[in-house]
From TrEMBL:
It is an enzyme of class 1 (oxidoreductase). The keyword ATP-binding does not apply. The lineage of its organism: Bacteria, Bacillati, Actinomycetota, Actinomycetes, Micrococcales. Its EC number is 1.14.13.149. This is Ring-1,2-phenylacetyl-CoA epoxidase subunit PaaC. GO terms for molecular function: phenylacetyl-CoA 1,2-epoxidase activity. PANTHER family: 1,2-PHENYLACETYL-COA EPOXIDASE, SUBUNIT C (PTHR30458:SF0), PHENYLACETIC ACID DEGRADATION PROTEIN PAA (PTHR30458). It comes from Leifsonia aquatica (Corynebacterium aquaticum).
Length: 278
């Protein structure tokens, strides 16, 4: 950023943004992704993109200023993961990350229903984040061993960040569950509302059979995921609801009623002003 000379009359000066190359932020490869690898990258990239959009909606609305900043930073971390993964997915079809984020319709997204859930009250957001961050830690921890160098590289960078996200969610789960009667009531209600959508994260799809050694088998993550939740659940006395598990379908383009409105907000500027830059 630079300020042009001769602008003393303007207290703010004339500000020009220097051109910045962002490629160093991403894990890149000269080889394009295969169609199957690209599809898997869409799974992960869409999960991160949709959850980032949801968390970004808390900016200026969080219950305290520090939490406003914390949720914004988590959203930015997830957006970084999404950009790397969507960029890689796009190499299979000569599309950019922006093409995939802004110019796909709802049925072409591959996000799981958990990430599409509305923010609800703060307890609902924290319970969703509790499940999401524990899942991401297990996923990226194993994906580091992928034989695909881009996926392994993204995972190696992401796992450090989602570990902090998990700690943040764990602390808030304790704070809410062990706080007032009202905060505990809201947390129990949020668990009942959110938890049926968790099962979809661990459902195997035929795609995984074609990506042996590259992708992480979702069902293999469930035991360690459940075990990782146990310290917080034991400390707070919370119990996971034993109710039904939702059918899901996001990996096959069958989404909840919540994704369409979210995408309308996410994509509106790009679609109203195609080709715009600033």
């Amino acid at each position: 950023m630079s300020t042009a000379p001769g602008t003393d009359a303007d207290p703010h000066g004339h500000v020009e943004l220097s051109s910045v190359t962002l490629s160093a932020e991403f894990v890149v490869s000269d080889a394009p992704a295969s169609p199957d690898v690209a599809e898997y990258a869409l799974w992960l990239g869409d999960d991160a993109l949709v959850l980032a959009q949801r968390l970004g909606m808390w900016i200026s609305r969080a219950p305290e200023l520090e939490e406003d900043v914390a949720l914004a930073n988590i959203a930015l971390d997830l957006l970084g993961h999404a950009r790397s993964l969507l960029r890689y997915a796009g190499t299979a079809s000569d599309r950019t990350e922006d093409d995939l984020a802004y110019w796909r319709d709802e049925h072409a997204f591959r996000s799981a229903h958990l990430f599409e859930l509305p923010n609800g009250d703060f307890a609902h957001t924290i319970v969703r984040q509790f499940a999401a961050s524990h899942y991401f830690v297990e996923l990226y921890g194993r994906l580091r061993a992928s034989t695909d160098p881009v996926l392994a590289g993204v995972a190696a960078k992401a796992v450090k960040e989602v570990d902090y996200h998990r700690d943040h969610a764990d602390q808030w789960m304790r704070r809410l569950a062990l706080g007032t009667d009202e905060s505990r009531r809201r947390t129990v209600t949020a668990l009942a509302d959110v938890w049926p959508s968790v099962a979809e994260l661990f459902q195997d799809e035929p795609l995984i059979d074609r990506l042996e050694g590259i992708a992480v088998r979702p069902s293999a993550l469930r035991p360690d995921f459940d075990e990782s939740l146990r310290p917080v659940l034991d400390e707070t006395g919370l119990e996971l609801p034993g109710t039904f598990a939702s059918a899901g379908g996001g990996r096959r383009g069958r989404h909840s009623e919540y994704l369409g409105p979210l995408l309308a907000e996410l994509q509106v500027l790009a679609r109203q002003h195609p080709g715009a830059s600033w």
